[in-house]
């Protein structure tokens, strides 16, 4: 259950759980979100502050939304249903296909 106020460690845990649900490694999440692996490590550690734009990019790629609501409405938002995996976009499908082709080529070259 969501408790208020939400802390940076709470946000980091939410992002880690969403990445696991979506089957994304940290390397893949950093790639699709357009951030460096180092930045992602810092965000997911829950120990460092991060930019709002970084949070928005990660949330978007994980099928999450960043919401700013009045405090009185926050409990109602927290009580809502959990949404399943995100709807995959054409861009996500194309990126996944390109990633799979690159991995396939690399595997063939190795052996």
End-to-end distance, in Å?
Answer: 48 Å
Structural class: mainly alpha
Give the overall pLDDT as a whole number.
85
DSSP helix fraction: 55-70%
Low-confidence stretches: none
Helix and strand succession?
HHHHHH
Radius of gyration: 16 Å
- Beta-strand level of the residues, as a percent range? under 5%
Shape annotation: elongated
Give me the number of helical elements. 6
Assembly form of the protein: single chain
* Largest sheet: number of strands, sense, barrel closure: none
What is the total tally of β strands? 0
List keywords for this structure.
6 helices
What does this structure look like?
The protein is mainly alpha-helical and 111 residues long. It is built from six helices and no strands. It has helices spanning 8-21, 26-33, 37-45, 52-61, 71-78, 90-110. Helix 2 (26-33) packs across helix 3 and helix 2 crosses helix 4. It is elongated and about 60 Å long.
Brief description of this entry?
By secondary structure, this protein is mostly helical. 63% of the residues lie in helices and 0% in strands.
List the SSEs and their pairings:
Layout: H1 8-21, H2 26-33, H3 37-45, H4 52-61, H5 71-78, H6 90-110
Helix pairs in contact: 2-3, 2-4
